[in-house]
Structures are given as structure tokens and as C-alpha cells.
Amino acid sequence: MKDKLRVGTEYLRKTCAPETFAFTTTAELEGLEDIVGQERAVQAMSFGLDITRPGYNIFIVGSPGTGRTTYAKKAVQAKATRQPVPPDWCYVYNFSNPSQPKALVLPGGQGRVFCRDIEELEAALREDIPKAFDGEEYERHKARILQDFQKTRTALLEELTDLALQRGFALKTTASGFLTVPIIDGREVAQNEYASLKPEVQREIEERSQQLRVEAAEIMRRVTQAERELRARLKELDHSIGLSAVGHLIEELQHKYRDNAQVVAYLETYKNDVLQHLDEFKDKDGEEQLPLLAMRRQDVRRYKVNLLVDNSKTDGAPVVVEPNPTWYNLLGRVEYQNEMGSFTTDFTKIKAGAFHRANGGYLILNANDLLANPLAWQAVKRALKTREIRVESMADQYSALALSTLRPEPIPLTTKVVIIGNHFQYQLLYNYDEDFRKLFKVKVDFDDDMERTPETEMHIARFAAQRAKSEGLRHLHRDAVARVVEHSSRIISSQRRLSTCFNELAELLYEADVWAGLEGAKVVQRRHVNKAIAEKIYRSSRWQEYRERLLAEGKLLVSVQGAAVGQVNGLSVLSTGDYQFGVPARITANTFAGRGGIINIEREIQLSGSIHSKGVLTLAGYLGQRFAQKRPLALSASITFEQLYGGVEGDSASSAELFALLSSLADIPIDQGLAVTGSVNQKGEIQPVGGINEKTEGWFETCKILGMTGTQGVVIPRRNLDDLMLNDEVLEAVRAKRFLVYAIDRVEEGLEILTGVAAGSPDAKGEYGADTVFGRVQRKLNLFSEEQPPKGKDNE
User: Fold this and answer.
1) In the beta sheet, which residues pair with residue 248?
2) Rounded Cα–Cα distance for residues 325 and 370 (Å)
3) Which of 119, 419, 672, 788 has the greatest count of CB atoms below 10 A from its CB?
4) Residue 505 phi/psi, 5° resolution?
5) Which CATH number describes the domain made up of 38-86+314-446?
6) What is the C-alpha to C-alpha distance for residues 239 and 40, in angstroms, rounded to an integer?
7) Residue-wise over 158-195: b if at least 16 C-beta within 10 A, else e?
8) How far apart are CA 781 and CA 768, in angstroms?
9) 399-425, pLDDT tens digit by residue?
10) Is the pLDDT of residue 752 over 70?
């Protein structure tokens, strides 16, 4: 059986024959422009871009390097160019409520024109209004109004003077108003004389003075009324003159924008405000304005336009990629300036965010950046849920300074958001944020691999051609392309699939180009690709070399020769982030009488992960099913990974642990030249595991260090055969029969390879042959069971 389970070199790596390519170098090929191997993602993306209903935003999931971002930008851009240019948005002064600037919408590209029109309007007003008020007609009308007022005022004051004389008083004008002086015998009475008058005379003068004050108050009321009428007539005159200067200019713009009711209404309020503040437009060039006086004047910026979104140079719908999605970068901000020690602002300092720029188009965000910024995710949800962009300051409530705040009018939102993330982020948001599933209903799932066919192998060749042409790299010889194809299969450990992580392949092309350049080669050959792969491994393999040194020095106890009972070489994988490699681990098992069951030492000291613990517990199920059908399983056993000082996770060593247990129970030694990997279930079937290439190559390196014998090898699950993409050195060793690879489906096959003894099959009574592994295990378990005292009695 052992020879039948040995694997030939034809199964250890699927090579790519260069002669299958109908080209000599990639210079003969057209570059690969479209994404390949992502049919599901492409279809989902197309659907997500076509549907316009609320909530159908897109979340792209996939591994880094699979082309998610590049494809997303390309697909969105292609869709956007076929769509109309969205409108421009402006903020203008709200003349009725300055703290709430109004938003105006104009056809795409017209915002800049509108800004220029308003600037020209203001310039014209500042030129025409002073001229209108400097004209002879204005002065003539003003003089007539003042003359009429002066006549009225003079007549009223004369009436008041006559009335005072009739009452026996002289009327004197002072800085504070009028003063009445009594007249006796045609002579004005001085104040010192008044005190010497008889009391009855003083009472009579006081009575007449009181009567005069009442009558004078009525006359002064008429004077005040005349002054009020003067101001009204002057204001009416100013309004009339101002309207003559303003009206036709405003009306021209209202006619130009007659199809935009918002703009027409704004221009009407603009005109009314100008007419109410004509003094701001009159010529004051000769006046020197003091700072405080200047602050009291109306802020002339209220006649400006803040062009928030300008789509004049946009072709189709906008596509915005926001690399730093903070609250303010997404929703916009209101900037402040320091005036006299206080921070103030106005509508011209409202700045657009990514949602503003992408309105009517597409906003692309990276989930890593989005979730790393506090409140950014909340900003995205709020905008999508309310379907409006509301510029708000998050600092106002925390600031110790007095800030003049604005609450700009919200802008309706019609943006489709595309978030690029990974599977973990998608599941996290989907399971823990109930809004997520309502807002991102389209999932675009990128595959990590694609089927390996002649067509997809040619896709890799065309990809290399495209990179060479677009980035000035050397073209690849078809031998080099074949090696890149094989490496693509190695990346995902599959003979049937190719990696869709084209970014990793691109890195290989860059590095192979460098090595070809150092050699002076005109095209990249297979040896250059091999060199790039080897050098990349070397740059990241310091820890691997460190462990190999410990092996050579005998500090890591691993046997590659001889045989031992209850001891087997297991295989695991260590990862340093950018590199992973296989390492051997001595697994030992001790068995003895008792009812303690199988003790996983790593679990007892909390170094065992949950999957590894499950694998160990599975062993008890296997032993019970096979050996405890007639009597209870009386067994105590301990299993451990020797010299393991970190954690262990995964069940890929469960078959090795089982072999160590059975070896200990049967007292049959295991060949130490062989290493084992594979998961086992309760039925004794060997299940596939990950990292099969790294584990196999790791054991091969161990044997090289400690001494090759020609009988060493690995035992792997048969279901992992199509995952093998071993390196050239291992292939050559297998071909030369210096290293062996066995593939098994069941525990029985592994036992025979490792021990050289048949596992055994039960007879009609369920008993195993005495010279088989299972027969010896059964006898040992029966012995343990007989030696155990009845349950519930003390063992004295």
C-alpha cells in the first residue's frame, strides 16, 4: 500500500508550458484593459450603477490588490461620462435672516456666469448710484423739498413767537431748545427781578406760562411732523433716484434668469436691500473710515455670491474620490476669521465638502479611511438618510470662544456612494449597524482567484504587456510569462486556479525588470522572474533562517531519522506578515490507565485556540467510535506540541496527534523521517488543510539541515493534491527519490505509512488482528478498562 500512496512529480506542481503561447515576447500582445476573473463583481457593479432608487449605494468587498479601487474608478467614470452635468450650487446672503444663507441652484456651468453677473452688477451700482445722486435733477428736487420744509418750519416758529408775545413772553432760542422770558410793561424781566415780584404777579405769570407751554407743544408737534415728512420725502426721493439707477440693471438680470424662480426672487430681494442701504453706495472715497465706524456699516460682502460647486469644467457626472473622509471634508465647513478678538464668519466662508462636489454624481470612499475618522461614518449615514447636505460645525458646542454661527440652507443630495472595503468590515457594519443594510443594498464581491485555463493564462500575459507599455518596463519572454503564471497559482496554492491579486503580480514584474536591467538584458527571462521571487523571499525570511539555525544547533528538538513511540512530526505555518513558511513541531502523546480522557496540554495553559481544541476533542470521538462499542473507554492521555511557547490554532495537526496517540497505545514506533499534516474527523477521514506548500517545503528544508537519508518525506491529505505548487528544489528531490510525498484519505493509510504495520480491519465480532495497530490498541484499552475499579468505589 505504501508505494501506491506515493505521489509522483506530475502531481506536485502544474507547470505552464511556454510553447502554449503563440508569441515570443509580450511586445507582440495587446495590453489587458478590462478586469478579468471578476464576473460576479462586474455584474453586481453594473446593477448598482444602473439602479437609482434610494438606498442602493455600493459596498465593494475584496482583498487588497485585486483591483477593487482601480476597477471602481474606471467603472464609475465610464458610467458618469454618459450622464448629464449636474447643476451648480451657490450660497447667497439671506437679507431677511443673515444667519441662514440661501442656496441657489443653476444649470451646470452657469454658476460662474452668475457670479460674474453679480460682480458686474455691484460694480455698475457703485458707479451709477453716486452719479445719480450727484446730478442736478437730484439736487434740485432735494433743494425744493428742503425749501418747502424750511418755509413750513419758519412759519411755525413765527406763529410760536407771536403766540408767546400775546401771552406776555419773549421767545429765546438756546442750544437745548426754546426759553420763554416774561415781559412786564414792555420790558423783559430778568431772573433776579422775577424773585422780587409780588406772589400774585408770579402766580399770574406762571398760569400764562403753563398755557403757553401747552400751545407751544402743539406747534412743536407740527414742527416734528414737518421734519418727519421731510425725511420721508427725502427717502422717497432717494428711493426714486436709486430705483432709476438700480431698477433697469436688476431687471436685465431677472430677464436673463427668468427661467430660474429662485434667482429672480433673490434679485428682487437684492434690489430692495440696495434701495434700503443706498448710503453704502454713495461716493465716500474722500472719507477716512475708522475701524469701529467701518464695522458699523453694512457688510458689503452681502452682495457677493459664494460659488460652492462649479461644474463648468465637468464632463458628465462628477466622480469624487475623497482620501481623507472627515466630517468637514465630507459635509463642508464654515471658516472663521478673527475680528477684534472675536471669531466671526459669513456666507462667503462656507466651503464645499466631498458630498457637495459629488452631488449628482458619485463619491468613492475607502472603508479604512472612513472608519478611522471619528464621526465620518455618521456623516455619511446622515447625508444618505436625509438625502440632503447640511453644513454644520461640530466644534461650536465645545468652543470656549464666542463664535458667530451660520446655519446654511441644506442642499438636496443625489449622490451614489461607493465604499471600498474588505469582508470583515462589511460583516461588521452589516451585523452591528442597522442603517448599513438600508443604505448599502448592493454588494460587489471581488474573488481572490479565477479558474486557470489557457484563456486566463493569456490574460496574465496581456497584463504583463499592458504594464510594460504603460510603465516603461521590459517586455517578458514567454518563458518568463509561464513562470509568472505558475507563481500566480502558487500565491493561492491551487493548480486549478489563478490569483486575481494583480497588484502582487505587478510587484513581481517590477522586481524582475530590475534584475533584468542589472544583467543588461533587453527582455525579462524566466531566470529574472525566479531571481525576483527568491530575492523577495530572502528579504523577508530572517525569522525562518533563525529557526533553521536553532535546528542546526540542536536547540529545537526535531528528529528526521529513526523511529519513536508516541512521537510524530507535525507541520505548521508561521507568518511574519508579508511572508509565511512551514515549521516542524514535535508532537508527543502519553497514554495511561485512568478516566481522565485526552488532555490537551496547550488548552490547559490557554495556549490552544478554539479550532485546535475542537480538533483534539474530535480524537476522543474517533477513539470511542472505533474502540468503545462494547465497553467504556477507560483512558487518560496527554498530548502536547513540544517547545511551543506561543499559541497554536487550527486543526491541521489533529491527524498527527491521533497517530501519536495510537502509536503510544499500540506501543508501535513512528518513522521520524516522515512529517504529517491533515485534519481528521470522527469517522477517520483525512480532511484538507491550508499552507500545504509551505509545510511540505518547510519539512524538506528541515531534512536538508539535519541530514537527508532518501527515505524522508511528508504525509498529506489526498484532497490537497491539487493545491500543491512546490518549488523546483523539492520537485527535483522527489524526482530523484531523495524525498517522498504520500497522499492519504483515511487514518488507516497514514498508520501503515508511518509505522510499517497494517492498521487492521475488524472481523465479524468487531475484533482486530493481534498483529495490527488497531488490534494492539484494543488490547491496551481493554487492559486499562480491566484495571479500573468500578465507578463510585475508592481505589485502595
Assistant:
1) none
2) 6
3) 419
4) -65, -35
5) 3.40.50.300
6) 69
7) eebbebbeebbbebeeeeeeeebebbeeeeebeeeeee
8) 13
9) 555 455 789 999 999 999 999 999 999
10) yes
Tell me the pLDDT of the chain averaged across its residues: 87
C-alpha cell at 16: 505552464
Among 524, 504, 505, smallest CA distance to 513 is for 524
Q: Is the pLDDT of residue 31 over 70?
A: yes
In this structure, what C-alpha cell is assigned to residue 777? 490498541
Q: How far apart are CA 697 and CA 584, in angstroms?
A: 10
Statement: residue 133 has pLDDT above 70: yes
> What's 714-743 look like in SS3?
EEEEHHHHHHCCCCHHHHHHHHCCCCEEEE
Residues belonging to the chain: 796
Distance CA 680, CA 570 (A): 14
pLDDT of residue 783: 83
Cα Rg, the chain, nearest whole Å: 47
Q: Which has the closest alpha carbon to 749: 719, 779, 778?
A: 719
Give the dihedral sign, CA 392/394/397/403.
negative
Average the pLDDT over 149-159 and give the result: 83
Q: Assess contact for 58 and 48: CB atoms under 8 A.
A: yes
CA distance 8 to 10: 5
Q: Where are the domains of the chain?
A: 17-35+449-540, 38-86+314-446, 131-278, 547-786
Taking each helix axis from N to C end, the angle separating 454-471 and 478-491, rounded to the nearest 10 degrees, works out to 110
What whole-number distance in Å separates Cα of residue 275 and Cα of residue 441? Answer: 53
- Return the ∠ at Cα 84 (arms to 81 and 90), rounded to 5°: 115
pLDDT of 649: 53
Strand partners, 445: 61
Question: 299: pLDDT confidence band, cut at 50, 70 and 90?
Answer: low
Query: Can you tell me the distance from the alpha carbon of 155 to that of 223, in angstroms, rounded to the nearest whole number?
Result: 10
Using pLDDT thresholds of 50, 70 and 90, give the confidence band for residue 646.
low
The burial class, CB within 10 Å (0-12 / 13-18 / 19+), for 321 is middle
Instruction: Write out pLDDT tens, residues 675-716.
Output: 999 999 989 999 999 999 999 999 999 999 999 999 999 999
Rounded to an integer, what distance in angstroms lies between the CA atom of residue 134 and that of residue 136?
7
Query: For the domain 17-35+449-540, what is the CATH code?
Result: 1.10.8.60
SS (H, E, C) 23-83: CCEHHHCCCCCCCCCCHHHHHHHHHHHHCCCCCECEEEECCCCCCHHHHHHHHHHHHHCCC
> Minimum mean pLDDT among 168-172, 304-308, 598-602, 624-628: which range?
598-602
Count of beta carbons in the 10 Å neighbourhood of residue 545: 11
C-alpha cell at 255: 430677464
Q: Which residue has the cell 486499562?
A: 784
The partner residues of 403 in beta bridges, in order of sequence, read 343
* Alpha-carbon distances, residue 90 vs 54, 352, 411 (angstroms): 25, 10, 10
C-alpha to C-alpha distance for 68 and 63, rounded to whole angstroms: 8
Asked if 639 contacts 598 with a C-beta cutoff of 8 angstroms, the reply is yes
Going 485 to 488 to 493 to 494, the CA torsion angle's sign is negative
Portion of the chain with pLDDT greater than 70, in percent: 90
The arrangement of secondary structure in 547-786, i.e. its CATH architecture, is 2-Layer Sandwich (3.30)
Task: Report the greatest alpha carbon distance in the chain.
Answer: 162
